[in-house]
Amino acid sequence: MNNTSEREIKRQTESELMRRVADRDHVAFEKFTKDYSALIFSTVFKVLNHYEDTEDVVNEVLATVWKKADSFHARKGSLVTWICTTSRNRAIDRVRSVQRRCALYDRFEEKLETEAPEKRSSGREELYRSDARGVLQTAVVSLSPEQREVIELAYFEGLTQKQIAERIHSPLGTVKARIRRGVEKLRGSLKETLRDEGQLLLSSVSSF
């Protein structure tokens, strides 16, 4: 059997596997998971270099495959290439998400430095603010993907509500509602734990 025939048979096999996954065939999905989980893990780990985050993203990639297996088209490239591209993109999304959460806290600290410089005065305050970082990151992660998206676009990219609506192809009213609900959820998460510092942060977020 020549190489051309081998490649064609492999391509057909890959297409059939993904067709079955797209048809919600659990046996096919188990085979996909068994055959390609190691590849997904290694691809993601090269980007994140963090074991636990890599495991999380691997699960996200597998969920994406289950939901969007029909987006694979053998004529556009091999299944391995599709998997690596999907995995790498999801890993990069995780990096950006972490960077945004860090940026959110950096903005918070900058506001503290400007409006409450006395907070730098003691080791106890430094410990408190270290704890506050974790609280804030958890609060942002707890938002729904839709709420987090619009708040990040408004807060980090400085887009207006109208620009956000155009960016994500959603009605303006929907964008306003998501921002309002996201801010309300952040306020509830932070008010008691971060006290006055939380209000400093939310005074900026609420300006949307």
How would you describe the overall organization of this protein?
By secondary structure, this protein is mostly helical. The protein folds into two domains: 3-93, RNA polymerase sigma factor, region 2, helix turn helix motif (Rna Polymerase Sigma Factor, Chain: A), CATH 1.10.1740; 116-205, Arc Repressor Mutant, subunit A, CATH 1.10.10. It is built from eight helices and no strands. Helix 2 (26-48) runs antiparallel to helix 3, helix 3 (51-68) packs across helix 4 (79-115) and helix 7 packs across helix 8. The longest helix is centred in the middle third of the chain and has 37 residues, at 79-115. The chain starts with a helix and ends with a helix.
Brief write-up:
It contains 8 helices and no strands. With 208 residues, it is mainly alpha-helical.
How does the major sheet shape up?
none
CATH H-level superfamily of the largest domain: RNA polymerase sigma factor, region 2, helix turn helix motif
Structural class: mainly alpha
Would you report the number of β strands? 0
Principal-axis shape equals elongated
* Spatial gap, N to C terminus: 65 Å
Radius of gyration: 22 Å
The poorly predicted ranges are: 119-124, 204-208
SSE pattern, N- to C-terminal: HHHHHHHH
CATH class of the largest domain: Mainly Alpha
